[in-house]
Specification:
six-stranded antiparallel β-sheet; Jelly Rolls; disordered N terminus; five-stranded antiparallel β-sheet; alpha+beta; globular
């Protein structure tokens, strides 16, 4: 009787967790352009959650050859797994000459507020998991693509006025 009761309680407690269960093959990913806070040219697919809202998220970032993420930090921890290619990750406030090469299957846990930069030499895909909302804080404001896009938009509007 105690075993049946324990199984019933365990099943009831597990039911809400199963409601969020999901499975996905790589052929089912829906790739789109990266948000303005990341340099253009890469694609992103959200596997779980909403990176810009509170809660857990998992996404994949597909980067072309020679893609660069200038030195920055995030306010929350991230876990990075390399799915394909080689992802170069360096620590510090400046792009260095010797970032660590993480190859397919490689993993890096990145604590919050750690200054780092990243790049590719050939196409690469990484999976990033963390707790939202996702943010990226560039050490040099001039490196922030969203600010560059606004500046470019203002310049185009000014050019149209002439």
């Amino acid at each position: 009787m105690k075993t049946v009761l324990a199984l019933t309680i365990a099943t009831a407690l597990a039911a809400p967790a199963l409601a969020d269960d999901m499975m996905m093959n790589s052929s089912e990913l829906k790739w789109g352009d990266v948000p303005p806070v990341l340099p253009k040219g890469a694609k992103v697919a959200v596997l779980h959650g909403d990176p810009f809202k509170p809660g857990q998220y998992t996404l994949r970032l597909q980067m072309p050859a020679n893609y660069k993420l200038a030195p920055h930090w995030h306010s929350k921890d991230e876990s990075i797994t390399v799915i394909s290619g080689t992802f170069y990750l360096g620590m510090g406030e400046k792009m260095g000459a010797d970032p660590h090469a993480l190859k397919a299957g490689g993993y890096h846990y990145l604590p919050a507020k750690t200054n780092h930069y990243a790049m590719t030499k050939s196409p690469a895909v990484v999976q990033v998991s963390g707790e939202g909302p996702f943010d990226i804080n560039y050490l040099n404001a001039a490196d922030d693509p969203s600010k560059m896009a606004k500046k470019d938009g203002m310049m185009k509007k000014d050019a149209m006025k002439k």
